[in-house]
């Protein structure tokens, strides 16, 4: 079974050294991505979703460091790479970053350089990794732009990001992500910066590309509504940990963690008059001083008592492939 | 793009006309004219000047014409390349200016190159190594560089080289070459003298530029497009040179044109201290002695260069930043 995984993240701990102190952004994140699978990572702002993805890509900024854990990646030949052991800017890691895994960023306006053409920025990736000349790279880039639904790509290739609309920029970003035919695509809030009307189109495009290229996908979002149609498996994150994970239907039908339940309640529904939209009380605690025990106990409606403040609950399988870390689902006698 | 340039050109001409009037007004502004200060000078030396003589001189120099006639005479000649006559030097202004322009440009351009060649790598380096020991070291040095007045540095360097090395570094030539015709020996003599003004003029500029480059680059390094470029698997140094450095350089490229007037008027005080045969001290003297055609020509020349410089800057900005080009 392990060999069908493309990515295995185990006990990932990432710290940021800041002037105010150590920020523990990730505190033991575990999740796997199977080949061809679409996996969602959901959570509020600041829960570590993006940090997880840039850690996998080894693009953490200078102040961030991977303190503990393993990230294993299986390439096109199913060869195992221990991502953590590689030098972030080393040749080995760079042969993975790009041709093997690539990333779509949140804000396509700022994620492209404003003074280089879209074509230049996509061709750069092809030219660097593949043994092709400029005209071939250009041909491939036009093909990619066409594939993601940009009209007149022969013309558009020479335009600058500010000449594209928001949705087109994100399409171009997807085209850039697909260049060099990676296996794993990480989409970090790919629709957050877009108009609602464009969001659905871009998500549909990502889904189509995933099927066409047989990609494994990690979709990071704070929007559970987005997750439902896009992924097979969901990881719910809270304060640098995965607190619940399971097949998407399970998570929606039988959410086990109080946090997941609250998140689901706070999705606006179009049906019926349910009155006020539910929200989760309080706000995410300060990352400089994490609460002891289950990190959610400060906001949890179903808090049992002292046990919740004692230690992080163990991972419990409550149904097939559905895991949760919560004392409500743990036999307290054997703790 | 051509529409953009046409626009700028038209405004440039209008600006120049207004500036020429203003410069003429400015040189007319001080009470009296060159003749009054000349006569005072003559009288103080005991030479008696009769009223007829004065009237004759006034008429000859056209100083009694109405102001606008004087203006049109002046600007008309200026357009044909005749910048008038210097009373103080008793020579045409053209000769005076051209004589000094060559060496002025040599000094200005070498200091500009010195500044850029030293400042950009250090600026990039300190930004990449932000808050490291070497960053603090260069920051310290550049603050001192910014804070030291150029002429003081000139005095110190002159003192040190004379006291400890026995070399007189004032001027641009050793006495034996000053009037000699150009030869290889004279060029090497020039190079021996050149480094002092270049270092003096360049130091403050370098220090300032290091700070600006560092700040610009630090702003850019954190931008998302840098992470995007890295996510393509491109090596860090290539990413940094292609994206953030390129964008951090934009303000410098686009203000390159503004260096143009500085090439002539820059570092006047340093030039006085080092007794360099450049245009700076000439301008200063002309202003002091109300040598109106010389001073006026300088002001006009500087304005023309400023306007042309701005025009060049606009075009360069459009070239380096597509967001301007396509508006």
UniProtKB/TrEMBL annotation, chain A:
It is a peripheral membrane protein. GO terms for molecular function: ATP binding; ATP hydrolysis activity. Pfam families: ABC_tran (PF00005), oligo_HPY (PF08352). It is found in: Cell membrane. Residues 9-264 form the ABC transporter domain. GO terms for cellular component: plasma membrane. GO terms for biological process: peptide transport. Keywords: ATP-binding, Cell inner membrane, Cell membrane, Membrane, Nucleotide-binding, Translocase, Transport. Belongs to the ABC transporter superfamily. PANTHER family: ATPASE AAA-TYPE CORE DOMAIN-CONTAINING PROTEIN, OLIGOPEPTIDE TRANSPORT ATP-BINDING PROTEIN APPD. This is Peptide/nickel transport system ATP-binding protein.
TrEMBL record, chain B:
Gene3D superfamilies: MetI-like (1.10.3720.10). One of its GO terms (biological process) is transmembrane transport. The keyword Nucleotidyltransferase does not apply. The keyword Ribosomal protein does not apply. The chain crosses the membrane at residues 9-29, 101-124, 136-162, 194-213, 296-320. GO terms for cellular component: plasma membrane. InterPro entries: BPD_transp_1_N (IPR045621), MetI-like (IPR000515), MetI-like_sf (IPR035906). It is found in: Cell membrane. PROSITE patterns: ABC_TM1. It comes from the Bacteria. Keywords: Cell membrane, Membrane, Transmembrane, Transmembrane helix, Transport. It is a multi-pass membrane protein. Belongs to the binding-protein-dependent transport system permease family. This is Peptide/nickel transport system permease protein. It comes from Halanaerobium saccharolyticum.
